[in-house]
Specification:
With 579 residues, this protein is of the alpha/beta class. Helices cover 55% and strands 16% of the residues.
């Protein structure tokens, strides 16, 4: 099924043939000479034995014997040479196999696949046929690796590889392009596109099943992009069409674009490449570039939304919500740029810059007001996140008890031990931790009890339509009761009108936020709000910077004392180092 390096192997075979022809030539020449001398000596020997003449010429006899020796020696050398060639060929083949294939699946690697696709496209064009190339990307594979470890991830990849092979006809090329990305290419008759559709559908189904059988605990499916070689394409990056690209390069890029389209359309499906998809991709590239530049230029700014005590209407703090003041796109909402920043690995830098600015802004407010910030699941996976936050707090000299970190319920899908340890270290620093968007995810009551949250926020999808929707009203009421039962304060977000507010007030002492109290605003505009606003004093949010400093100071003293003791008492040092 896998065609690899046909050209290279042809060159090796040619050299081998040259070598064995020379050896065989020598042996053949010796045999011919043997026959010739034999023919000359034979009659003389017979005549001499019959006593009818002298014996054979001594020179010819010597030549004859030498000939026999050459034949024996040449033949054994020829055999040795053949064995040597066979061994070398096997070693070369093994080396070539290693260089051209992916060790985990045995499929072609990216480089050799590229070459093989080029060959396939050329040959298909000569036969008036078309090549289809499919880019297959596993959805949620990263979660399997993160949750279950790399061994499980590798096993799942191998199982997917088996399933992919099982769906393909003879002659197809298969490659593992990298990580959790596979690609296949096959020739087809351009009037029989439905055959390719059937194969793509069976790939989607087979991969979905293989993941389910692996019980890897995550919803691993496949997103597939298809591209055909009879469509001309100059590439996204080179929209000017200045340079020609190879057939395989264009096919891979088209299939990649279609695969991303499949991801955006909800994954677990396949799409054929269409030209407008390339435009989508171009704008996505623009967005990525804009975000990277925007971070460097300080275009991301914090906006603030009021949080109030619903019973009294008094202000308790603000939630920071990111906005992008883009010179090109205008003011962009976080729903657009946060997922992209997460994907391109820029979220930590973006978020830390925003938090640093927000801490400075919040220092200008009344010291009783809290600041809530949203944290991406990507940041939660960073083992240094708590340290980074502590550094920001210290640099700004901001009291940790005034800061609240909002993590969304979807974070709880991740490695729960990691989430717990992060929450613990944040809380040890005095920072509060709040569970955001509660009700939209799957967190169980047991999980809610086992993780030490300081607050839960009812998702705005339940709150906004509370007045007209009995189900939403029941859910909000239940969550408010749950909060009371677990002794967890509750915030309702998305309060848009007085009717919703009056409903919420019946549910006991909860906090709230929403457009009824004002839209999120930049720091400069808060100055108009703040004077004259009644602030409720939260006993927990006293200025506790001094407490933090004292705690850090005490830890340093303790370390110094231990170090001093260790230097004076070797036994103490050994005991401390666990020896
Ligand atoms: P969220 O944390 O649930 O934030 C509340 C969202 O609801 C905000 O949208 C806010 O403007 C909007 N909202 C508030 N009150 C109302 C209301 O009464 N009605 C309606 N219809 N909407 C209301 P925004 O600012 O567009 O933020 C969207 C999401 O983006 C946030 O949802 C949060 O998950 C995320 N986000 C915002 N800033 C950051 C950030 O700095 N880092 C990270 N990782 N995520 C952020
Ligand atoms: Ca939030
Ligand atoms: Ca929310």
């Amino acid at each position: 099924m896998i065609k690899a390096g046909a050209e290279q192997s042809r060159t090796f075979e040619d050299t081998d043939r040259q070598v064995d022809i020379v050896a065989l030539g020598i042996v053949t020449a010796a045999i011919l000479l043997f026959v010739a001398t034999g023919a000359a000596i034979g009659p003389a020997v017979v005549r001499s034995l019959a006593g009818q003449g002298p014996g054979p010429d001594r020179f010819l006899v010597n030549a004859f014997v030498l000939n026999i020796a050459i034949i024996i020696f040449g033949w054994s050398r020829y055999r040795e040479l053949c064995a040597e060639i066979r061994q070398r060929k096997a070693a070369e083949q093994h080396a070539r196999h290693l260089a051209e294939t992916d060790p985990l699946t045995g499929f072609l690697n990216r480089r050799s696949y590229h070459r093989a696709v080029e060959d396939m496209v050329r040959q298909a064009a000569m036969r008036d046929r078309t090549v289809v190339l499919a880019m297959i990307d596993l959805d949620n594979f990263k979660q399997v690796n993160d949750r279950n470890g790399h061994d499980t991830g590798d096993r799942l990849l191998q199982e997917c590889a088996r399933r992919i092979s099982g769906c393909l006809p003879h002659g197809a090329l298969i490659s593992r392009i990298g990580g959790d990305e596979f690609s296949v290419a096959l020739e087809f008759d351009r009037d029989r596109v439905e055959r390719v559709d059937r194969i793509a559908a069976s790939l989607v189904e087979a991969i979905g099943q293989s993941a389910a059988q692996n019980s890897a605990g995550a919803d691993v499916t496949a997103s597939i992009g298809l591209a055909r070689s009879d469509i001309a394409f100059s590439g996204v990056a080179r929209s000017d069409g200045a340079t020609e690209r190879s057939d395989a390069g264009a096919l891979l890029e088209m299939a990649d674009i279609a695969m991303y389209h499949a991801k955006r359309q909800g994954r677990n499906s396949f799409y054929w490449f269409e030209t407008p998809m390339a435009d989508e991709m171009r704008s996505r590239n623009d967005l990525e570039r804009g975000i990277r530049q925007g971070i460097a230029m300080g275009e991301f700014v914090p906006f603030y939304e009021r949080q109030v005590d619903l019973q009294t209407g008094e202000l308790t703090g603000f939630e920071m919500l990111a906005r992008w003041n883009s010179p090109r796109f205008g003011v962009v909402a976080p729903d657009i740029f946060i997922p992209v920043a997460e994907e391109i690995g820029a979220i930590a830098e973006l978020s830390e810059g925003l938090i640093a600015r927000a801490l400075q802004d919040a220092l200008e407010w009344d010291a009783r007001l809290t600041l809530s910030v949203n944290i991406s699941p990507v940041q939660m996976r960073d083992p240094w996140f708590a340290q980074k936050l502590l550094k920001l707090l210290l640099e700004a000299a901001f009291p940790p008890h005034r800061l609240e970190i909002e993590i969304t319920e979807s974070c709880l899908h991740q490695n729960i031990a990691q989430v717990r340890s992060l929450i613990d270290s944040l809380k040890n620093q005095g920072i509060k931790v709040c569970l955001d968007d509660f009700g939209t995810g799957f967190s169980s009551l047991a999980m809610l009890r086992s993780l030490p949250f300081d607050r839960i926020k009812i998702d705005r999808s339940f709150v906004s339509n509370l007045a007209g929707n009995k189900d939403s009203a029941a859910i909000v009421h239940a969550i408010a009761l749950l909060g009371q039962g677990l002794d967890l304060p509750v915030t309702a977000e998305g309060i848009e009108n007085a009717e919703v507010l009056s409903h919420l007030r019946q549910y006991g002492p909860i906090k709230g936020q929403g457009y009824l109290y004002g839209r999120p605003r930049p720091a400069e505009q808060l100055a108009e709000w703040l004077p004259g606003v009644v602030i409720v004093a939260d006993p927990e949010t006293v200025n506790d910077l001094a407490i933090l400093r004292r705690r850090i100071e005490a830890r340093r003293h303790e370390e110094q004392a231990l170090a001093a003791q260790a230097s004076q008492d070797p036994q103490f040092r050994l005991a401390r180092e666990g020896i």
